[in-house]
Amino acid sequence: MMGRNILIIQGHPDKEQVHFGHALGQAYQEGADSAGFHTRQVTIATAEFPLLNTKFEFDHGQVPAAIKKAQDDILWADHIVIIYPLWLGAMPARLKGFFEQVFRPGFAMSEPESGHLWKKLLKGKSARIIVTMGMPAFFYRWFFGGHSLKNLQRNILSFSGIKPIKATMIGMVDEGKEKELKVWLSRVKLLGEKAI
Fold first, then answer.
1. H-helix or E-strand containing 127?
2. 160-186 burial code (b ≥16 CB/10 A, e <16)
3. What gap in Å lies between CA 95 and CA 22, rounded to an integer?
4. Rounded Cα–Cα distance for residues 165 and 34 (Å)
5. Closest to 159 in 3D by CA, of 195, 124, 186, 123
6. Is residue 71 exposed (0-12), middle (13-18) or buried (19+ Cβ within 10 Å)?
7. CB atoms within 10 A of CB 38
8. Which of 59, 88, 102, 148 stands 20 to 30 A from 141 (CA)?
9. What confidence tens digit (pLDDT) does each residue in 131-149 have?
10. Mean pLDDT for all residues in the chain
């Protein structure tokens, strides 16, 4: 595990204010750095890229410089940590647009030959998803079925060969008491120390 490369993808789209997700990313990175791991971070809010509008763009469009840098960071990483807030029951649109740009054919998967399945090009990497939300986390799992989280796990990461994929859901962050939020920061720092 020593020398493991960890990429933290900060998925909050707000580049003006600091949110709890930013503190979680910092806590994970501090834990990982203190354990001797190598870390990098991609910040979605400051990455410049357009949204894809057609299948042709997805399959053949030019890859923007910020997306190419993120792809290089993903290839470098052994473990990927994705942190985002739940908005309207899903990930923010900017983060979804980022994943559409990054996880293209030729990078994340290759088109199948006749009669074969898609080839997964990102095997050998693991991931941790950390989702913050205003509602109780158990309610999101129980009532909504954690559909946004499942979509990211199954349709993006696993489809590209990334596994295992672990998840941490933190509810009631808007109304969270300082003591409770500090407990979460400590837990996430421990995850960083273990690179899980």
1. strand 126-132
2. bbbbebebbbbbbbeebeeeebeebbe
3. 15
4. 23
5. 123
6. middle
7. 14
8. 102
9. 999 888 888 887 777 788 9
10. 93
Under a CB-based contact definition with an 8 Å cutoff, are residues 43 and 71 in contact? no
Question: Which residues, in sequence order, are bridge partners of residue 165?
Answer: 127
How far apart are the C-alpha atoms of 75 and 39, rounded to whole Å? Answer: 13
Pairwise CA distance, residues 99 & 51, whole Å: 10
Determine the longest span between alpha carbons in the chain, in angstroms: 57
Give me the pLDDT at residue 117, please: 79
Average pLDDT over residues 160-176: 92
Q: Mind listing the domains of the chain with CATH numbers? A: 5-194 (3.40.50.360)
Does 164 sit behind a cis peptide bond, omega within 30 degrees of 0 on the bond before it? yes
pLDDT (tens digit, 9 = 90+) per residue, 30-49?
A: 999 999 999 999 999 999 99
Nearest CA-CA partner of 83 in 3, 170, 142: 170
User: Is 0.70 topped by the overall pTM?
Assistant: yes
Does residue 38 contact residue 79 with C-beta atoms inside 8 Å?
no
